From TrEMBL:
Superkingdom classification of source: Bacteria
GO molecular function: pantothenate kinase activity
Protein name in UniProt: Type II pantothenate kinase
Record key words, sorted: ATP-binding, Coenzyme A biosynthesis, Cytoplasm, Kinase, Nucleotide-binding, Transferase
Gene: coaW
Amino acid sequence: NSVGVDAGGTLIKIAYRNDQQELSFEKFPVSEIAMAAAWIQEHFAGAEICVTGGKAKQLHDLLNRPIRTLVEFDATCNGVQYLMDMQKLSDEPFVLTNVGTGTSIHFVDKQKHHRLGGIGVGGGTLMGLSFLLTGIQNYAEIVEVSRQGNRKFIDLKVSDIYEGMVPPIPGDLTASNFGNVLQHQTTRQNSDILASVIGLVGETITTISVQAATQNGASSIVYIGSSFIGNDVLRDTVVNYTVLRGAVPTVLRNGEYSGAIGALMS
Ligand code: ATP
Ligand code: MG
């Protein structure tokens, strides 16, 4: 009986096996880390606890019993391998992009993995920019409102610049995120702004992921992280933009629990 925890910058993810031995999950916001610790104490009194992520020490201090800690990237990549095996996805080498609070990019081959880099644009950017521009700070509300949004008066496509000409690169590529704002000075809908914020985040992480894949001879990109939870606008942006850029995208089911699963299996 054991439990795996990924205590990230925004959310604490927990993986364990239930009485039927099925893989099960739980999550808590980091602002409720004390509640997460209490939940673990209550449900896993005698169990081994394996923790990964940047808030591992903070959680350990609250748990007040021995824990095992694991390097976040090892846990995440192992959890991803497990999920991909379970979901019978191809085991060709791929680029793994973890869109958490920030974004981390890895190269994953059958037996090995290494971190390629990362960027500060991620789920935290989505939350922060959305709040600054619209005053909305509830994640579910941001996602819901963005669904009705239209990016065309905020963002500039290549085809907008190459008006009436055949552009040298696909016209549907974004030439400039938020680059159309000054040309269209009208009152703006929150929905349009939020759609463009998600577009900016999605296209930025896609662009560096595709470049990382190209540079490392991989054609497939696997996306994980809680930023995709219930967020079909981000999901669609990333999937469509990855295809437009010539790579093969997968948004891994339960991928946000990869770190916790890797910790559990370790
Ligand atoms: P990191 O790995 O960078 O330390 P993390 O592991 O906490 O951070 P994730 O849990 O993968 O990051 O993703 C956090 C992001 O998921 C948030 O920034 C937000 O965009 C999104 N998100 C999804 N559900 C929620 C929620 N209920 N509350 C807040 N953010 C959420
Ligand atoms: Mg994380």
